[in-house]
Amino acid sequence: MAGSLEQKLQELVEPIVQSYGLTLWGLRYRVGRSNAHLQIFVEGENGVDAEACGEITNVLSPLLDTADLIDPAYILEVSSPGLDRILFTREQMLQSVGQEVSVNLKIVTEGRRKIEGLLKAVADDGTLTIEDKTHHQDHLVAFENVSVARIVPDYSSLL
């Protein structure tokens, strides 16, 4: 979808993030009942600190207001993607093969709205193969049917 709101926001945000030596991992814009929320996830080779997130927020806020792409009443959040990071792209999915994921689906598939398990493969057409952690069976999921996909962190490896 050329020219989507997310794409326009990304084109505006990405050069600012890169000017800090960071990478734009992804962004998410959601509209709630009382306000809108723009989350911008940034990543660096040595992680991301709160100071950099604050500086990026201070630069982006007036820029976003001037661009007038989103509702004037919104919350802007700039942060690291974290251990339970959202996977926004097929490339990020491909880099995450072998990890446990939690995937919410747009359309119920095989009677399920959510699948958790091992991401075993990402096909050239974007089809994900996820081994269900409960039933140990493979599920094929079209990337286009993914509402939100997250890494499920293995906290035991941090101990």
Automatic annotation (TrEMBL):
Keywords tagged on the record: Cytoplasm, Ribosome biogenesis
Q: Which Pfam families match?
A: DUF150_C, RimP_N
**Assigned GO CC terms:** cytosol
- What SUPFAM superfamilies does the database record attribute to this sequence? YhbC-like, C-terminal domain, YhbC-like, N-terminal domain
Gene3D superfamilies attached here?
A: Ribosome maturation factor RimP, C-terminal domain, RimP-like superfamily, N-terminal
- Domain Ribosome maturation factor RimP C-terminal intervals: 87-153
Which family would the database say this protein is a member of? Belongs to the RimP family.
Name this protein carries in UniProt: Ribosome maturation factor RimP
The species is Candidatus Anaerobiospirillum pullistercoris
Q: Which gene encodes it?
A: rimP
